[in-house]
């Protein structure tokens, strides 16, 4: 094969089109990956709309990528052709900025996100640096693994580094693409898990995913409901709604923590007094390094945690993308290439 299909966007806000490009050769320290599955994340819309600085067109996005190595660049060791690998939001780091020098690679000031820094995974093939690679366990299919490179690692990593300890109450705000994974991880990490979502119709799914309690956010004040349960040590805010996040703050225990994952521009309406009384805190959490992705994949395989996905062929990328944007997906759209 000397050429490959890519789903590219020609200019900001335009639809995807399937075109053929010359197959790339991996440079030093890089590998070429035959893509088997690529998740569609809401962050991809930010790239398509050029909401991120420096996005270049024509654009091939995709940062939830699962496949197999088919070629090695010069100097690559510890990886071989045929290895099953994942590339997530963390697509490499510069190694020179202050966060990198401190070992804080996910906060690299020049973080190399696939689809932003280089061609992403909405394609038959992609090239990535070895620093971005995570190994996929045999127990996970490519389609199951793909969303864990962003949605999975973001929720799992946030919880395992949170203020909560096994037995503590953890509330997951939102039951969508991130939240349905957050509930599973919270339960399997040993937390008394509370799911918060709109309406009563989502309660059966929340219970099925492992939630011990369910709070209907339309039935009254969420903070009061949390306090009746004893308060939450952590609220994992996956819902992209600032008002919904704000409504949970008074339901935190002393030294409780609101972890913000839902990326929205609207400010949180929280007073200093709400934080001071009870020594509460608010933290933002990004994704995770390639090792964090690998840990997420391994934990998911060990505990039987799987994303709820809908698979669509690469050629139908526009339909899948629109389904993601509309919120109709249950819960992650995954493109498959047939490789």
UniProtKB/TrEMBL annotation:
| Record bears the keyword Secreted | no
Q: Which PROSITE patterns match?
A: ADH_ZINC
Question: Known Pfam families for this protein?
Answer: ADH_N (PF08240), ADH_zinc_N (PF00107)
For this entry, the protein name equals: Alcohol dehydrogenase
Q: Name one GO cellular component term.
A: cytoplasm
What keywords is this UniProt entry annotated with? Metal-binding, NAD, Oxidoreductase, Zinc
Q: Which EC number(s) are documented for this chain?
A: 1.1.1.1
Q: Which domain of life is it from?
A: Bacteria
Alphabetically, the GO molecular function entries are:
alcohol dehydrogenase (NAD+) activity; zinc ion binding
InterPro entries for the chain: ADH-like_C (IPR013149), ADH-like_N (IPR013154), ADH_Zn_CS (IPR002328), ER (IPR020843), GroES-like_sf (IPR011032), NAD(P)-bd_dom_sf (IPR036291)
- Annotated ranges, domain Enoyl reductase (ER): 13-335
Which parts pass through the membrane? none
What family does this belong to? Belongs to the zinc-containing alcohol dehydrogenase family.
Catalytic activity field:
a secondary alcohol + NAD(+) = a ketone + NADH + H(+); a primary alcohol + NAD(+) = an aldehyde + NADH + H(+)
Q: Which residues form the signal peptide?
A: none
Which coenzyme or cofactor does it need?
A: Zn(2+)
Tell me which species this is from: Streptomyces subrutilus
């Amino acid at each position: 094969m000397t050429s490959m299909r890519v789903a590219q966007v020609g200019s900001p806000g335009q639809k995807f089109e399937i075109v053929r490009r010359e197959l790339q050769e991996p440079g030093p320290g890089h590998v070429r990956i035959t893509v088997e599955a690529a998740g569609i994340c809401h962050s991809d819309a930010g790239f398509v709309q050029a909401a991120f600085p420096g996005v270049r067109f024509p654009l091939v996005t995709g940062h939830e990528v699962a496949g197999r190595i088919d070629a090695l660049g010069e100097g690559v060791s510890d990886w071989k052709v045929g290895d099953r690998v994942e590339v997530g939001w963390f697509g490499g780091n510069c190694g020179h900025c202050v966060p990198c020098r401190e070992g804080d690679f996910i906060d690299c000031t020049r973080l190399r996100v696939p689809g932003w820094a280089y061609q992403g995974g909405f394609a038959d093939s992609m090239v990535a640096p070895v620093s971005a690679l995570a190994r996929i366990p045999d127990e996970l299919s490519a389609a199951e693994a793909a969303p864990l490179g962003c949605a999975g690692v973001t929720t799992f990593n946030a919880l395992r580094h949170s203020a909560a300890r096994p037995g503590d109450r953890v509330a997951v705000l939102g039951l969508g693409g991130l939240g349905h994974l957050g509930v599973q991880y919270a339960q399997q990490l040993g937390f008394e898990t509370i799911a918060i979502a709109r309406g009563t119709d989502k309660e059966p799914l929340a219970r099925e995913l492992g939630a011990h309690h369910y709070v209907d956010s339309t039935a009254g004040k969420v903070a009061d409901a949390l306090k009746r349960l004893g308060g939450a040590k952590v609220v994992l805010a996956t819902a992209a709604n600032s008002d919904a996040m704000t409504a949970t703050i008074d339901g935190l225990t002393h030294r409780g923590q609101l972890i913000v994952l839902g990326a929205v521009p609207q400010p949180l309406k929280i007073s200093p007094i709400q934080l001071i009384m009870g020594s509460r805190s608010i933290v933002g959490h990004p994704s995770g390094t390639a090792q964090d992705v690998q840990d997420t994949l391994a934990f998911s395989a060990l505990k039987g945690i799987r994303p709820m996905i809908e698979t669509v062929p690469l050629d139908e990328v526009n339909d899948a993308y629109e389904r993601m944007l509309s919120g109709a997906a249950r819960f992650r759209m995954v493109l498959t290439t047939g490789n």
